[in-house]
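COMPLEX REQUEST
Ligand: heme C
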Amino acid sequence: MDKLGTMHFCALVLIGSWSVMGVAQESAADFSEGRALFESYQCWQCHGYQGQGGSAGVRIAPTIYPFEAFLQLVRHTNLMPAYSPNVLSDENLRRIYEYVRSIPEPPALEDIQKLSLY
Ligand code: HEC
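STATUS: Structure written out below.
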């Protein structure tokens, strides 16, 4: 590669890493905002901090629902108090949804050593 080619290559690598860093920072910020909303709207009270569910609410994370389905479930439920758009905007619900989506799959029971008898 000649000198000019090397400079172009370095510039591309730099631009590439800036944009990757930008995306990573943006998504981390989005999830923390969604988590804060998940807490302030009391979702955790019934669904747990990790959306793992409990005696008062079903497991909601990880979720396979697309946003539209998630929104319908939160707006029109039977047992859960429905959150109207006046109380919880679509925009904030999307942030909550993105936080719930970011929660990773838990490890399989057999992979948790403390639960293993042998
Ligand atoms: C007072 C307890 C309570 C609170 C607070 C609560 N939920 Fe629920 N949620 C439930 C219960 C109970 C169900 C099961 C509803 C049913 O089957 O009719 C449910 C169901 C859901 C479902 C559908 C799950 C499924 O697979 O059927 C979603 C999604 C959900 N809740 C999200 C949320 C979000 C997001 C919040 C906060 C904005 C929230 N919930 C706050 C009790 C609660």
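REMARKS: Residues 41-43, 45-47, 56-58, 60, 70, 73-74, 77-81, 83, 88, 96 surround heme C (CB under 6 Å). The two ends are 58 Å apart (CA to CA).
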